[in-house]
Amino acid sequence: MENSRTKKEGVEDGARIYLDYAANAPLTFEVKTLISQLLGEYGNPSSIHKEGVQMRADIGSARKRVARCLEALADEIYFTSGSTEGLNLAIRGVVEKARETNSKQHIISSAIEHPAIIETLKALERTGVEVDYLLPGRTGVVSSLDIRRALKKETVLLAFSYVHSEIGTVLPLQEYIKELRLFKKNITGEKFPYLLLDATQAPLYHSLNVERMSADLMVIDGGKIGALSGSGVLYVRRNISLTPIMFGGGQEKGVRPGSQNTLAIKVIAEALEEAELDRKESAKRVKECADFFIRRLQSKVSSVIVNGEDNNLSPHIISLCFPRVDAEWLVLQLDAAGVSVSRGSACKSGKGNESDVLRLINPSCAENSIRFSFGKKTTQEELEKTIGIVERLVGAGAPLSDDCYNGTS
User: Hey, which of 141, 163, 349, 351 would disulfide with 314, CB 3.0 to 4.6 Å?
Assistant: First the structure.
């Protein structure tokens, strides 16, 4: 009975449609091939024997490859376990270093950042750091005027997502850079404040030239670009010193001690090079998929609303609001029908069904929004099928979002 329902309302023959690339991107063919070639290699890069020396040389080569992709210097590249660790290292490392010379530290971020930023900042607040969580407008963008008003002599860091992971909004980076430069020139005349960019969602579709971006620090996550989950890159501009928050060996110049994962490091270098080569073509193709999906879905489900700013969204992420439809229910029904999507947060008691991001910028859609995210394997045929499934589910009398509060969904 379950199989017949899947064929009637969902995809056929057990094939699934994956539209959650922002959560994790499948390994590319080239990366899979590389991994199969590397599985037989072993040795600790810190050892002085032949195997260790080779591993160390391989890491050095990967560091140079990553640096070229970012238009950075090799000694500005650190390998981590992913964006969460990278953001913790960057934020806490800057603050601890600033404490050596500054009696007070102030940080500016937005109220809708990823938990890896928000929770790190909250922890620092408990140690006396002052943090301004700026509230974006309905499009998910903090105005440059609000940045200007928040900057002060004690500001040591600005921390923002370059591409927002839930709604896909792209940071108006040049506006922020202009404010920072004027502030440094007219007020501090010092190195602070630094600009930290969470580029987790950016590499496949956006240029990450750190010079043009004026980034002081930036993080990348392997799992989002077709490399291995649990791998990442932290870029730190050469003239910036971070106080370590982890202690052990001297790997990664002591900033990130611990035996390096050589396989993961070589793979993320390969994936970044692929991303750089394919970026323009991939962005164009995925944008066509997104435009097609929105246009066709709105023709079938007229009530659907696009969250964020239409003209300033990354091509691969779409956050859609289905008014009064319980998003948790819709995600689960799509999953049962063979389509993988996600949303901001799971349904919990009270207001746990709300997306914290949309609660702040578009409260009427906080309980009713789903994120669809696309990749290089996404096809128009898959999107057509998904649209048909969504149309049937929404039109069949989906439970209202209030049902979640009453525990009846």
Answer: 163
Q: Following DSSP, what letter does each residue of 218-287 receive, concatenated?
A: EEEEGGGTTS-TT-EEEEE-TT-----SS-SS-GGGGTS-S---HHHHHHHHHHHHHHHHHHHHHHHHHH
The CATH fold assigned to 2-27+279-405 is Aspartate Aminotransferase, domain 1 (3.90.1150)
Taking a C-beta distance cutoff of 8 angstroms, is the pair 181, 158 a contact? Answer: no
> Which active-site residues does the annotation give?
347
Which secondary-structure segment (H or E) carries 97? helix 83-98
Task: Give pTM, 2 decimals.
Answer: 0.91
First to last CA, the chain: 22
All CATH 3.40.640.10 domain ranges of the chain, comma separated, are: 29-275
Q: Which residues on adjacent β-strands are paired with residue 198?
A: 161, 219
104: CB partners within 8 A, 6+ apart = 130, 154
The answer to whether the CB of 190 falls within 8 A of the CB of 154 is no
Report the alpha-carbon distance of residue 92 to residue 243 in Å, rounded.
8
The string of pLDDT tens digits covering residues 61-71 is 999 999 999 99
Q: What is the pLDDT of residue 155?
A: 96
Question: For residues 126 and 168, what is the distance between their CA atoms, to the nearest angstrom?
Answer: 31
Q: CA-to-CA distance for 143 and 359, rounded, in angstroms? A: 18
Give residue-wise pLDDT tens across range 162-217.
999 999 999 999 999 999 999 998 877 778 999 999 999 999 999 999 999 999 99
Would you tell me which CATH number, out of the four given (3.40.50.360, 1.25.40.10, 3.90.230.10, 3.40.640.10), belongs to the domain 29-275?
Answer: 3.40.640.10
Q: What is the pLDDT of residue 10?
A: 55
Residues of the chain predicted below pLDDT 70? 1-14, 344-353, 397-409
CA distance 403 to 328: 11
Distance between CA atoms of residues 146 and 139, nearest Å: 15
**Which 3 state secondary structure label does DSSP give 360?**
helix
Longest dimension (CA), the chain: 71
Instruction: Please give the pLDDT value at position 405.
Output: 36
